[in-house]
Amino acid sequence: MNNQPASMDAQLEGSNPKLQTVKYVNLLPNGKQGDYTAQNRIDYMPDPTTVPYFDGKQSYLNLQITNTSTFQQGNSGNPATADPPMCFPAHMGANAIINRCLLRAKDNGQVIEDIEAYNMLNGIKNAYTNDSDVFKTLGRITGVAGRTCDPANQAVDNQAINYFIPNGSVTANAIVGGNTKASAQFCVPIETGLMSAFANQHHVVPNLDVPLHFQFFLEKDNVALQVLSSEFYQTVNVDGVAVVHKNYQSPLSEHAGVKAAADITLGVGVCDTSLTIDGEAWDVRKCAFRIGQAVMVGADTRIITAVEGNTGAGSNQIKITVDVAFGAGDGAVQLKMAPITRGYKVDKAEMKLLLTIPDQPTMRMIRSQMARGISFASSQLYKLSTAPQLKNSVLDIPEALTRVMSMLAVPVQQDNLESLDLANSYVYCRPDPLLVAGNDNQVSYQWQVQNTLIPNLEVDTNSATNNANDNSIYFNQVVMALRHMLTVKALSDNPLARKTEDIDIELPYFFPISLSPVGQSFNLINSAPQLRINNSSATPANILAKLYFIFAVHTRILKSTEMGAEISF
Prior knowledge:
The chain is mainly beta. It has three domains: 2-226 and 342-356, Hexon Major Viral Coat Protein, domain 3 (Alpha-Beta Complex); 231-339, no CATH class; 359-561, no CATH class. The chain starts with a strand and ends with a strand.
């Protein structure tokens, strides 16, 4: 193990520094100020003469983002007049649009940090390190609105996440106004190590000593955006007892209904509009179908002209009226939202830096420390793959880093990297049985470093094997690995146990390892690190091909030299 180099924070605190936070400085991107779309790059170069030092923890991106998703037009003859009901994955928020964050030294181009799969890593951090009661606040600020991107956290009437779909007005239990093209503003922390994203510290970021160049690479539309869900009330039989519960459904799923020419009635089997839960009555605004949207029955596309609750035969049903009749005669049908072309646009992209002015003695201390080097935590990404139908796999981890604290290996289904639903494994990584219906594959894992197995027994991610509803063995490994970045909170706030499937991992799924005590690190060079994976399924087709995103959390040392910035890790 390596002792961590002293951080600038520690050096300055011991010397009673004089730091004055003055004001926020608004920094516009290099090049165009807005109109950025998927897979574009946004660059910032703060001027060291006007922004010599700043507080990275309290600096952020101020983004104005518009949902530009559209319905793929079918055969109705009329265009959709409303946007699809979209949002960012709940645990990622607006960070979902950033695939990669690259931080360079402006003087010599030295790479200081390069955080790939930026949105995936921050989604994991958000899911495990926030108390559940903060999400209503975070949703309106950063777009982060839940610990998972389950449909329950992405409901259309959830005020923390429906920023791209105004509710419209409701009269007599009917939506009389549809949504219009919507945009929203987000204040998003800059999640790099130098900005203290991997610790709850307020670094003095030395832009005067090492002028910085930030580059943000925007994510693909299909990955960044998800569809809002409906919140339906249903009565279900649980052990012979009728229980009223909420059932969250994506409008992209098929909903059973009855066709009557120009309308579709969704019966009580989909949603019983007369039910109440904890005194809360169902409201038509909980339905993701809105006026002006495109829907399909079979191959026929139509445009919604009205959405009403408490109607239909016997009432207690939802009636959706369309612009052109589907055809004569009644009959059972399946209704779903028409295909969507996903899209977003960043209309405004400001970087707001909290300017910090040190007095002269403190500035001399900072510059002296920069010459010796300051330390900060960061992340390095490796990608390794495993073949399908392979019961046992061994991943050889690159030995490129000398100051590693922990690693997170995230398994992504190879053929599902850009899926358009909530089973998108890049957005929301889960075990095979939760990712693919009917898949019985259970996975255990073990790391090996310097010919030592860590932990000494395989960790089975199946809760029943560990004889614990909350899978304490697995989650203990998670806590130890994540503590090098942030403190894990509220693991039980989300219903983790799925007793019917014997799986309890609804939070983003990964294989963790902690390599050192907090405050220290481990040298991976010549340690031959490996991740060993065992698949339990007796059905070869259930063992899926995976792409592993392996995040190595480590310490970097940044120095200011006569030749410019110098980085070591």
